[in-house]
Amino acid sequence: MRTEPQNQNYQNASDRNGGPVELLLVSLWSSVWRLRVVRTAVVFFCSVASRLKLLAPGIVFAALFLWSCGIGSSATNTPSLRNHHLGALKINQSISHEFSWTNDTFVSIRIKAVTVSCECVEVKSFTPVIPPRGVGHILVTATPRTPGLVEWMVYAQLENHEGLWYFALSASVSAAANSNAATGRLVHISEVLNGVHPVKDWMLVDVRSQDMFRQAHIPGSINVPLFALKARGFLRARQVVLLNEGHHAGPLLEEAVRLNNLGFESVGVLDGGVREWQLAGGLLEGESTNSSSLATISAQQFFNARAEPGWLVIATQNDSTGMLPANQIWDFESVTVEKITNAIRQHTETRRILLVTPDGEGYRVLNVNLNGFHSLPLFYLEGGTAAFVTHFTDQLAQQHRRIVTISSQQEQNARFSNGARAPGQNRRCCGGS
Asked: Where are the beta strands (DSSP E) in 120-228?
């Protein structure tokens, strides 16, 4: 599998630094500046110029020289992250993916080493030297070992400790076809909705926070945290349906499997959660049943839910970092019911929609423009792209998938010979988040 990601690791150098002639000169200056004799000559020139009362020209020359060198080198020092979702996989099913990008600078890019966050991902090959205008590749093969939503990180180290490039793979992993492992069952709204009221045979268990439950919940449902369900003995003999906001069913399905294995009679998960219930015309009760918070998803929530199948992410501005997995980039004014409906026809697997603005502002206007859209659950990303990128970066730092200076290849080999893992490698299989 090979894709050309929409977001390049390099911004277009000619857009950022001027025309190609200017960039060529800048790149030549950058290469020359690496020579110690040249740096010494610049210092000497400035010293002589000051003595000859030519201080101003000397400073201007030096400033322009340093500035141009800085631009030339920054074109190769801008790390970015590429995301690719592999879709639905089975345990022990191997799949390959090739990250591909173009070096849009006039300087060769050298990759010293490529490491991964999990032993179940293998680096097959990579391009060690990417010439100007050349194409670089990193080919990896992933073999998931655990079910659920998983994520793997691939790190490319540039030479001279100039930084890291980040590549992310994610997948929704289910048990193999010949496996006897139990799977959670999604319960459709129609099974538990009688008119506008829930069917009495079902025990609806809302696992959202107490504040969210207090604002709005399905009549007759009870509020129990996910971790506390197994201690609620009165639920064992009931037909239990777990529910949340509707944007992330994975943890609930996993818990349903565990509870069924512990002897609970029947545990399922409400497909679409509270938002799907709302769209189906079901009643809600609480302090604020029309609160916009029902349609709001935080950066942390979407970070955890982004690998779940069925997302249609519509952003009003391109994310230059590549961290936001947007399917569509539209102008703010063009986000209409008709256009979203057409996008759903093109992406037939869509089950929920996320709208994203750069800073999380403007959702009220979008909500007015989309009034009357009831086909699928619609969510708005709190804090927009900026909040999501910040959270993503924080996660990289917190999970041993952090921005670090990797030691030399020789030091790595010495450590590996003693049984150590590569930098950033997670001891947990699949590097699940």
From this structure: 121-126, 129-130, 135-142, 148-158, 164-174, 185-187, 193-194, 197-198, 202-206, 222-223
357 pLDDT tier (thresholds 50, 70, 90) = very high
The burial of 432, by beta-carbon neighbours within 10 Å (0-12 exposed, 13-18 middle, 19 or more buried), is given as middle
Phi, psi dihedrals of residue 206, rounded to the nearest 5°: -90, 120
Which among 307, 234, 228, 225 is positioned nearest to 265, based on CA atoms? 234
What beta strand segments (E) does 117-147 contain? 121-126, 129-130, 135-142
Q: Which two tokens stand for residue 1?
A: 């599998």
Residues 6+ apart with CB under 8 A from 410: none
CATH number of the domain at 292-394, out of 3.40.250.10, 3.30.360.10, 3.40.50.1000, 3.30.70.360? Answer: 3.40.250.10
Decide if 166 contacts 423 (C-beta within 8 A).
Answer: no
- Name the superfamily (CATH) of residues 78-178+405-431: Immunoglobulins (2.60.40.10)
Beta strands 148-158 and 164-174 are antiparallel
**What's the whole-number mean pLDDT along residues 279-304?**
90
Where do we find the tokens 């906001």? 245
Closest by CA position to 158, among listed 101, 106, 103, 112: 112
How does pLDDT run across 387-431, given as a tens digit for each residue?
998 988 887 766 544 434 443 444 444 444 444 444 444 434 454
Find, among 327, 325, 385, 399, the residue nearest to 155 by Cα: 399
Tens-digit pLDDT profile for residues 189-200? 988 888 777 888
pLDDT digits (tens, 9 = 90+) for 210-258: 999 999 999 999 999 999 999 999 999 999 999 999 998 888 998 999 9
Strands 266-270 and 185-187, how do they pair?
A: parallel
Rg value, the chain, Cα: 27
Q: Using alpha carbons, select from 303, 345, 348 the residue that is nearest to residue 325.
A: 303
Q: Look at residue 120 and tell me whether its pLDDT is greater than 80.
A: yes
**Which pLDDT value is given to residue 430?**
52
Q: Which residues pair with 137 in a beta bridge?
A: 100
Query: What CATH architecture applies to the domain 185-279?
Result: 3-Layer(aba) Sandwich (3.40)
